[in-house]
Design a protein that fits this description.
It is built from 22 helices and 23 strands. With 668 residues, the chain is of the alpha+beta class. The strands form four sheets. The chain has an eight-stranded mixed sheet with strand order 10-22-21-20-11-18-19-23, with helices on both faces. The longest helix has 35 residues. The protein is elongated, with a radius of gyration of 32 Å.
């Protein structure tokens, strides 16, 4: 919290998550609320004693109530003044001391009670949202079973090292990240990704920290220490993100910083006016009331508390939002550009058909293609390689940017690439048919002669049509940006219900297209966080899809969707809009209270007790409203398959693709 905030530690040092004030598990354990309750009891006792006729004793008890109430903010305010720092606590301390000096013990005590209540509620609200986030680390079990030299040992997760072999029995949680080395099971990742449907996993699949083993026993080779697991990184990143300031928070800061010394100057002018008018005590009292009326405490906490609540809630539903800036921009999005491969599609390409020509067989086509793709990690390459049992790697394989690969096998030249680079006239009708069916087509050539074509298709995610409908229902337009060919992109766009497609784009082309799609409105780009990095950086908000355990995706994007369910996208957009609405409501209410109370206090219409009550009530309302931002609905258990009526999308394209590390162009 900043110096302008109403917390007693205006330097912010005691607002760290580990501080004892934030460790209270129950509302009644909050120190500020305990002191407020004690002060309230003393104030009530003093009032009752005064009714019995012992006025001096009653005043003494009321003075004690004022001292107890001020104990939550006055000591730290004095220390900050000595450090040449002033804040809301300074204003409240001056007002409380002034009220005591004027003999208004009850009003000073009431100020301390209400201010401490608001302060305690603020700290409790922050503590609750932080506890909700830190509770993610509770998903890591206290012990883990590790196999060392063939012997089972129970160890602390902190003692695990990379290369250890974990034994995960049914019902147990993974203590850290690793790769399944033996056994098959289903993993429940609902607490991490927000998706309640377990995923099947076997040898070679990743098991993330906190995943519940829902099937048979499996052995996992540890790939990261517990302190650097995906779960630990999520918590660390979100805690850092909660401290980042958004536009609304910066607005609140810009107003609050000059407001504090301005209020003190105004109070001094009002007090001096009393000397001129000959009523110094009356105007000094009004000056003290103005100090309280104009306090920007509610304004200072309005946005930070909302950000903490909203970011924490989003993380518990599988979305990492990197702070207030990303949260606020996300709430203003009007257009979403979506990558095709791995975002709209499952990122599980498979060979769906092989077309032959010139007497070649399907085996000839596949083995030739696999020879060129043997050392590639491209999704297209993996699909082709999985269709061949033992591929033989070609020699001197090089990429022709935007076209494909060429190399030699046993001295014979080979080529693999997109239609247009290799002449497809002999099988043009088959190529067109495959592309119309949503497949990506590559042609295979040996010694200058066309052998045939391989059709690879990455199926649309089942939840994609529902996702696009939900975005449209929120008033958000959707567009597809892809390096794939126009026919394939058009077919997939029709299935998803997307009306605008930009196809055959290189990564840098995607970034340029965003400026055209923006049209003066806020735009988000959804991609895998690596190949789409230029577009993610260019968009107002970059959103990485399926980023669980992917460092690059988490670090480069403004928002990372941890799960593979595309419905997280409209969910997080709706959540951000709600949070931004709460921010604006809080700022508006805070400013309205200050604007209304200052003149009423300056002209004596409202007394100190009334102003204190109204001002602190407004602060409680701001806190309560900010907590509303913590509401986030989980996804339903299943993603229904829906096929909307096809609509003919408008399509634009670029002529070339750019090769990736495999040498295959983005159109693949």
């Amino acid at each position: 919290m900043s110096a302008e905030c109403c917390g007693p530690d205006e330097s912010g040092s005691s607002h760290e998550p580990g501080h004892d004030r934030h460790s209270a598990e129950r509302l009644w354990q909050v120190r500020e609320l305990q002191l407020a309750a004690a002060a309230a009891l003393l104030l009530a006792a003093g009032w009752l004693i005064g009714l019995t006729g012992a006025k001096q004793v009653g005043l003494g008890v009321e003075l004690a109530a004022a001292v107890v109430g001020a104990a939550t903010f006055a000591p730290e305010a004095v220390r900050n003044v000595l450090r040449r720092r002033v804040g809301v606590g300074t204003l409240m301390t001056i007002a409380a001391v002034g009220a005591v000096a004027l003999g208004q013990f009850a009003e000073a005590a009431l100020l301390g009670v209400l201010f401490s209540i608001a302060e305690g509620l603020e700290h409790y609200a922050i503590a609750r949202t932080r506890r909700g986030l830190r509770s993610l680390l509770g998903l890591v079990p206290p012990t883990a079973t590790v196999l060392r030299n063939g012997v089972e040992n129970r160890v602390s997760p902190d003692d695990l090292v990379v290369g250890d072999r974990l034994l995960l029995r049914p019902g147990e949680r993974a203590a850290t990240d690793g790769v399944i080395s033996s056994g098959r099971t289903s993993l429940d990742l609902s607490a991490i990704t927000g998706e309640s449907v377990p995923v099947e996993a076997g040898p070679g699949d990743i098991a993330h920290a906190g995943a519940i083993n829902g099937g048979g026993a499996v052995e996992i080779e540890v790939s990261a220490p517990a302190s650097d697991s995906s779960l630990a990184r999520i918590v660390h990143i979100v805690e850092q993100a909660q401290d980042r300031k958004g536009r609304g928070q910066r607005l609140a800061d810009r107003i609050a910083r000059p407001l504090v010394p301005g209020i003190m100057a105004l109070a001094a002018v009002i007090a001096a006016l009393g000397l001129v008018l000959g009523e110094p005590l009356v105007w000094i009292e009004r000056a003290l009331v103005v100090l309280v009326a104009a306090s920007p405490c509610a304004l200072a906490i309005s946005v930070p508390l909302t950000v903490v609540a909203a970011v924490g809630a989003a993380s518990r539903t599988g979305a990492l939002v990197k702070g207030g800036a990303a949260l606020e921009e996300l709430g203003r999005i009007k257009t979403v550009a979506v990558d095709k491969t791995g975002t709209l599609t499952r990122n599980e390409p498979r060979v769906v058909e092989v077309v032959t020509t010139g007497g070649a067989t399907e085996h000839d086509v596949l083995t030739t293609a696999a020879a060129l793709e043997a050392r590639s990690e491209h999704p297209l390459a993996r699909a082709i390689l999985s269709a061949v049992e033992a591929p033989t790697a070609a020699d001197e394989v090089t990429a022709t940017p935007g076209h494909g690969l060429h190399g030699h096998l046993d001295g014979i030249p080979l080529r693999l690439g997109k239609p247009g680079w290799i002449n497809a006239d002999a099988i043009a009708d088959d190529v067109a048919r495959l592309q119309h069916d949503g497949a990506t087509v590559v042609l295979v050539e040996r010694d200058g002669a066309l052998l045939g074509a391989v059709g690879v298709r990455d199926d649309l995610r089942a939840e994609a049509p529902e996702t696009i409908r939900r975005l449209r229902g929120q008033g958000i337009d959707a567009a597809m940006l892809t390096g794939d060919n126009t026919r394939t992109a058009t077919e997939l766009a029709q299935q998803a219900g997307i009306g605008t497609v930009h196809a055959e784009l290189r990564p840098e082309d995607k970034a340029r297209r965003l400026d055209e799609l923006r049209n003066g409105r806020k735009i988000a780009m959804v991609g895998d966080g690596i190949n789409d990095a230029p577009a993610l950086a260019t968009a107002d908000v970059g959103i990485a899809m399926g980023a669980m355990g992917t460092d690059v995706a988490i670090e480069t994007a403004d928002v990372a969707l941890m799960g593979e369910d595309l419905r997280h996208l409209p969910q997080v957009l709706e959540h951000a809009r709600h949070a931004r609405t709460v921010m604006l409501q809080n700022i508006g209410l805070s400013l309205a209270i200050i604007i209304v109370l200052i003149p009423l206090a300056a002209f004596g219409v409202l007394g100190l007790a009334t102003v204190v009550f109204v001002h602190e009530l407004a602060e409680v309302l701001v806190i309560g409203n900010a907590v509303r931002a913590a509401r986030a609905r989980p996804l339903p258990d299943t993603a229904p398959v829906a096929a909307p009526g096809k609509r003919e999308p408008s399509v634009t394209g670029k002529p070339t693709g750019r090769p990736d590390s495999s040498g295959c162009c983005d159109a693949c």
